[in-house]
Write a structure and sequence with these properties.
The structure is a homodimer of 361-residue chains. Chain A is of the alpha/beta class and 361 residues long. Chain A contains 15 helices and 12 strands. Chain A is globular.
């Protein structure tokens, strides 16, 4: 019944932890005094249960709740709300992990394309994939299209918008998509373009139509900005778009990155998930990155695997090490380092692609 | 030019702060090595500028950046992305505040109805307003409609869905809205109903049509779950809905609550903003609540004022104190405490309303 299992880390003294855990179970379910619930069915089936309380290192506790799956409405945004909505406002709680029954995971659906579908679209059956980004924000559509052509000529598999490219006057979405996709097609280049979807429901619907008209088959989505429900609906509506999730606003501090960027984004349909690699501009530990990649692509309820995309200040000198770390079911994303190469973008891209194809040697 | 001013608190040693501040300015603008930017205009107009670095208490620094307003595309989600998207993944940074020129604030638009429009709709020209919530999650539409009727009979101004009510099988959105709105209309009650909008673009569009068909004029939106761009688009599209923002997933830890729940939600069109009052189930300090209320309703760029709605474990015994603290331009939201009153919901609601109308005395 209460088969949505959620693990939290709580900073709390031993004498208070039972009450704190019960309060958390109320907050994340019925959000009212249980004694005032008139309907016995609601208390029995919907009120969150404290399944376990375990002391962990540092004097904190791991509390596992059982929540009701029907409370999620089988919808991504509401799932996030049930997992951490109000509790995100309480500073003593970290969301560490969650799981749900296989049948319910299938109802959420996960990645429509996933790792395997992405490989098929890209025509790369094995080995690591490559990705780069159109930058900088502020460039004209034409400049971005030129850059896309050079990266594609270098052999990059996926060329994504920088996550800062939305629908600004510098390079409006419709104009940019036509320019970039046009440049790739005109030159017969194989790269796939993944533009950023942004804004509210009306904007995103309009952007989807533009992608369809232009034959674009991938998109970049930041679920913590445009809504996890938006990702989920795009995945479930068989939009034909392979969906790459971007971690912007994923705030490292209060939700464990493997749970958010790995499992939750995958469950809601991300075909690939970008995350900060260790040793770059961000601070994820190697173990966090390994757990995140595992959460994205290891077998889980029969959902399609989600392609891990480590990124964030990477450079070609790290290719061999990253392939050793992640293995071949990965897409390496290098942006700025290709753009600042003295060899020029196309050559830098080609060297990067060849390093990846050669296993980094 | 770079007139989007953003204040961050950074934990960093004095010897490194200048480099750290420059790195932050790059991360939140062009996100690539500035030296590799070929277009001088982009470096001059789009690359973030470090406007000020000041030491503050605790050995941290306050860094003020100047970012380019056009980078936001004048769109709520993208504004959030520019303020904190990638940096939210870096643990040493807290987003403390932001501001922008008055002309740009007008382009964002702020609340379409705001505090004054809400008062007009509710027919309450002065003094604090009252709000309660339909609970618990798991109830049938009929049970929620009965509860709404009792709260309305008690004189509550706004009856909102509990933020956990989305589109679940217990009480599906369409059925629930018809049941609740029907009950209020049938009994000629004055209360306004604010159902929760949830899900992705297609769902929200369908929910809007249902609200229109049923003559519902208010809605509850959790911008950090369904996307700040969704709130913004609802406000800008003249939907006719007064929009109440819910703080779920607002995560206290990394964005200052007055900046997020006060200013940012207001700028993007929240007519009212719910937040955890001090001394309840959450941990905001009284000063945080006062700053948040000020950010929501004090004059700011000529935007409509946004109505502060302190909540989260409040009870009628606190009415006088809360009115002293917030004054009359406030809506008090009490949920569970009315439901557990031994007097019954309607009487508890009436006592609450009378206490508020009487200034808490």
């Amino acid at each position: 019944m209460k088969e949505l299992k959620v693990a939290y880390r709580i900073a709390c003294g031993a004498q208070d932890i039972e009450a704190r855990a019960r309060a958390l179970a109320v907050e994340q379910s019925i959000e009212m005094p249980p004694g005032a619930v008139g309907d016995e069915r609601v208390r029995a089936e919907v009120l969150g249960a404290v399944d376990a309380i375990q002391p962990i290192e540092g004097g904190d506790f791991r509390v596992t709740l059982g929540l009701s799956v029907p409370s999620t409405g089988l919808e991504g945004g509401q799932l996030l709300n049930m997992l951490f909505g109000n509790s995100s406002l309480q500073p003593d709680v970290i969301l560490e992990d969650f799981d749900l029954p296989t049948a319910d995971a299938a109802r959420f659906g996960g990645p429509a394309e996933g790792l395997v579908g992405l490989r098929r679209r890209l025509g790369v059956a094995a080995g690591a994939l490559t990705c780069s980004a159109l930058k900088p924000l502020g460039s004209s559509s034409r400049a971005l299209a030129d850059l896309a052509a050079r990266l594609a000529a270098g052999g990059i598999d996926v060329i994504k918008d920088d996550h800062g490219l939305a629908d600004q006057a510098f390079a409006p979405f419709a104009e940019r998509v036509r320019a970039v996709q046009g440049a790739l097609r005109r030159e017969g280049l194989n790269a796939h373009y993944a533009p950023t979807l942004s804004g509210g429901p009306i904007s995103i619907a309009a952007q989807r139509r533009i992608l369809q008209d232009e034959g674009v088959e991938m998109a970049l989505v930041a679920p913590m900005i445009c809504g996890l429900g938006t990702l989920h609906e795009l995945a479930r509506s068989r939009s034909g778009l392979a969906l790459i999730a971007h971690p912007a606003m994923g705030g490292a501090a209060r939700i464990a990155p493997p749970a958010l960027l790995g499992k939750l984004f995958r469950l809601c349909g991300a075909d690939a998930t970008i995350f900060p690699n260790h040793g770059g501009r961000f601070s994820y530990a190697p173990e966090t990155c390994a757990s995140l990649a595992a959460a994205a692509r290891n077998p889980w309820h029969g959902l399609n695997a989600c392609l891990p995309v480590p990124a964030g200040g990477m450079h070609p000198g790290r290719v061999a090490e990253m392939l050793d770390f992640y293995g071949g079911d990965v897409m390496l994303l290098i942006g700025g380092a290709l753009l600042e190469s003295p060899l020029g973008v196309e050559r830098a891209a080609r060297d990067f692609v060849e390093a990846v194809r050669g296993g980094g040697r």
